[in-house]
Specification:
about 120 residues, mainly alpha, two-stranded antiparallel sheet, 2 strands
Length: about 120
């Protein structure tokens, strides 16, 4: 055993790397269809999370009577979605941190990377 003056085995990082290469699960890149299905699941989960917020904001807008009720409904219909600021910069929508969305984003990125290697 090769102990350094700090009291740990200097070969440990190499052993850990070897163990990870042996034990690590093989990640299968998903195809377009599977990634699209994950995207649909993400959007469905986001819609469930956003619906009460949209309803609350719409109702508050209507109660304030600063705008017509139809305007309030149209305005908050897409609340929380990705928007474009200044015609150039996209602003991320809400709830893309849900597990369904994280899975979709990771799969989409893995698909993009797998295509760039070909």
């Amino acid at each position: 055993m090769l102990l350094s003056d700090k009291g740990y085995d200097r070969r440990f990082p190499l052993q850990l790397l070897f163990a990870l290469l042996i034990v690590a699960p093989t990640v299968k890149a998903l195809g377009d269809k599977e990634v699209a299905e994950l995207g649909e699941k993400c959007e469905a989960a986001r819609e469930i999370a956003l619906t009460p917020i949209r309803d609350q904001r719409t109702q508050a807008c209507i109660e304030q009577k600063l705008r017509q009720p139809d305007h309030c409904r149209r305005y908050y219909k897409t609340y929380g979605n990705v928007t474009v600021r200044g015609g150039v910069t996209p602003v991320m929508g809400y709830f893309y941190d849900l597990p369904e969305c994280v899975e979709w984003i990771d799969a989409r990125e893995a698909l993009r990377v797998s295509r760039s290697r070909n």
